[in-house]
């Protein structure tokens, strides 16, 4: 292998561009750990990329690595990056795998955050199906971590390092139970972005409380209960009665059972692979080989002695007299004898440019041009010797002894084009304004409006009229009913059994939201939750009285004719932040509708997170 010291068996001596076993040319060093290296290489025989694991041949892991490669080659599944070759050569032990290009699960989570529940379930179901094929052949992966799960540019899920990666890290042949536990960890990681598995991973570890990994729903809101229960049972086995009931109906001790459970949740997977392909996972990289050094430049041959030539014509100057100094060193090719000569640098300095000529002096009052006509020419006096005085009888003026023609009479001023049209337009506009003024004056004289309409004889209500008094003091609307409103949750329920307490007239009872580890809002997992108040009929809503528990609480109010299903397309009637427990929101104008939605957008902090409580809602109209 080129690039290796003779007798060397240390992988650090190999460099990009070296060729292993006269076949695999090393291109990029991807990772290095524990005395082993993972390369991207180029198979010079089959002209394709391959993945290359390399350790010293005398390493204690060498025999286990070759054995793992043999066992991995017995597993046939489309999702595996297969073992293509394994051997010892040049003092090194190497395993060649199929090359996969795309994004691993840890990179997807770091760049885009946790996956949606259905997307995560589909991805892990593909991994479980591949692991089940390996278990049926008696081979376990042994190190099933997010770094070894790849989604390629075609949207397919691929597994890296089946049995080989564990051997590279000095682990014993993997066990089925370890793979099953890591499958639950992969689902937990895809849903929350945290890693709870038994194998070591660079993904941040999942939070632990009282010796148990927190359930996914306590780490991230909106996770379906079925996936939450599966993760909790596989990651925290024997956690309670719920896990026992789940194991009675589903086989969670095998990869095939977990895969079937997830397939039932996903349903028809048509279109999911195409969606992953459209997500823009990385395409195959172009092979970049070390640059080849440029060939040495041939030294120029000395120019032959020039033969005497007849003196050239004056117009044909020699090239050396006109070439710039920066052209020195350029070749000159002779078409007759194929000789090459070189332009030499100048030996003499270039001549200086000609000096600037001073402009001739002009008289102090000389005109700028002989043909320019003075704006106000002075009268010409007879017998004057200097301009602007001159002889009126001869029509000449004297300028320092010289005569100049007298200025010609100015031509009559020409009419500016379009001026007549401007005058006509201004006249028409003045006539229209005069006509409008006459019509307005005539209508006002008849006791009508400026446009001629008959004025309304009914006087508008005065500030002390009953209508104004009723609008100033809106009355409470009776018979209110409340329902919880959580369109962004899955399931979409927020303590529905407590909603009647928000409209029972008793401030000591309240409806409350779930407790969240992160506040609501644009940066949270949800933009808000709330209550929908049914007024029992259509009313003109003028004010809403709200009583909260805790502070501060931010909210928005919506008034609609029908019960809403979302708030993104609705226009809020009011929005505010309650710094106290009781607040009244008066609308700028009464809004007609049957349903009033109280949408909480920011919750007060509580000891274990964030939670909102509404003690009483009163609507006035």
TrEMBL record:
Name used for this protein in its record: Protein kinase family protein
Stored Gene3D superfamilies: Galactose-binding domain-like, Phosphorylase Kinase, domain 1, Transferase(Phosphotransferase) domain 1
Compositionally biased intervals (Low complexity): 465-474
UniProt GO MF annotations: kinase activity
Keyword Transmembrane among record annotations: yes
Residue ranges, annotated region (Disordered): 279-378, 452-520
Annotated InterPro entries: FA58C, Galactose-bd-like_sf, Kinase-like_dom_sf, Prot_kinase_dom
Stretches that traverse the bilayer: 421-442
Entry-linked Pfam families: F5_F8_type_C
Protein kinase domain residues: 24-262
The species this protein was found in: Nocardioides caricicola
Residues making up the signal peptide according to the UniProt record: none
Biased composition (Polar residues): 507-517
Key words of the record: Kinase, Membrane, Receptor, Transferase, Transmembrane, Transmembrane helix
């Amino acid at each position: 292998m080129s690039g290796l010291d003779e007798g060397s068996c240390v992988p650090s001596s190999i460099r990009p561009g070296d060729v292993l076993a006269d076949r695999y040319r090393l291109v990029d060093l991807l990772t290095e750990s524990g005395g082993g290296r993972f390369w991207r290489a180029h198979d010079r025989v089959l002209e394709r990329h391959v993945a290359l694991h390399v350790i010293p041949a005398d390493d204690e892991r060498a025999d286990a690595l070759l054995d793992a490669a043999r066992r991995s080659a017995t597993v046939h599944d489309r999702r595996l990056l297969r073992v293509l070759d394994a051997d010892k050569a040049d003092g090194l032990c190497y395993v060649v795998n199929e090359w996969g290009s795309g994004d691993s699960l840890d990179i997807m989570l770091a760049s885009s955050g946790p996956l949606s529940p259905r997307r995560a379930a589909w991805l892990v179901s593909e991994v479980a199906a591949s692991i089940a094929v390996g278990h049926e052949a008696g081979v376990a992966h042994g190190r099933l971590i997010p770094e070894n799960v790849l989604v390629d540019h075609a949207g397919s899920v691929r597994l890296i390092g089946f049995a080989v990666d564990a051997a590279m890290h000095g682990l014993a042949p993997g066990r089925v139970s370890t793979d099953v536990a890591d499958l639950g960890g992969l689902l937990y990681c895809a849903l929350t972005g945290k890693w709870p598995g038994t194998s070591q991973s660079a993904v941040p570890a999942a939070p632990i409380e009282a010796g148990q990994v927190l359930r996914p729903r306590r780490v991230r809101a909106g996770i379906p209960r079925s996936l939450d229960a599966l993760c909790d049972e596989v990651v925290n086995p024997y956690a309670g009665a719920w896990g026992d009931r789940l194991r009675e109906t589903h086989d969670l001790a095998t990869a095939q059972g977990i895969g079937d459970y997830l397939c039932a949740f996903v349903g028809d997977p048509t279109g999911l692979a195409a969606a992953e392909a459209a997500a823009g996972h990385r395409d195959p990289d172009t092979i970049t080989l070390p640059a080849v050094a440029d060939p040495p430049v041939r030294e120029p041959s000395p120019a032959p002695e020039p033969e005497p030539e007849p003196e050239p014509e004056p117009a044909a100057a020699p090239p050396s007299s006109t070439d710039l100094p920066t052209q020195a060193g350029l070749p000159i090719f002779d078409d007759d004898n194929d000789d090459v000569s070189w332009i030499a640098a100048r030996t003499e300095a270039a001549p200086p440019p000609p000096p600037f000529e001073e402009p001739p002096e002009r008289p102090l009052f000389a005109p700028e041009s002989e043909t320019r006509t003075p704006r106000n020419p002075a009268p010409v006096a007879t017998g004057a010797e200097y301009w602007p005085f001159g002889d009126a009888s001869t029509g000449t003026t004297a300028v320092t002894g010289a005569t100049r023609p007298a200025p010609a009479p100015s031509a009559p001023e020409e009419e500016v084009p379009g001026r007549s049209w401007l005058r006509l337009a201004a006249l028409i506009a003045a006539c229209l304004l005069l006509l409008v003024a006459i019509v307005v004056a005539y209508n006002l004289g008849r006791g009508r409006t400026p446009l001629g309409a008959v004025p309304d004889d009914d006087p508008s209500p005065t500030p002390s009229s009953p209508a104004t008094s009723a609008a100033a003091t809106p009355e409470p609307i009776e018979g209110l009913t409340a329902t919880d409103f959580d369109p962004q949750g899955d399931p979409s329920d927020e303590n529905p059994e407590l909603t009647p307490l928000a409209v029972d007239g008793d401030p000591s009872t309240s409806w409350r939201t779930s407790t969240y580890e992160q506040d609501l809002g644009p940066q949270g997992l949800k933009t808000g939750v709330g209550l929908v108040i049914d007024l029992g009929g259509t009313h003109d809503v003028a004010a809403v009285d709200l009583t909260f528990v805790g502070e501060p609480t931010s909210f928005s109010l919506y008034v609609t004719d029908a019960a809403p299903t979302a708030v993104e397309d609705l226009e809020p009637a009011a929005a505010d932040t309650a710094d106290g427990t009781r607040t009244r929101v008066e609308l700028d104008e009464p809004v007609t509708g049957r349903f009033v939605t109280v949408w909480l957008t920011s919750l007060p902090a509580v000891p274990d997170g964030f939670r909102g409580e509404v003690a009483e809602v009163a609507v006035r109209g």
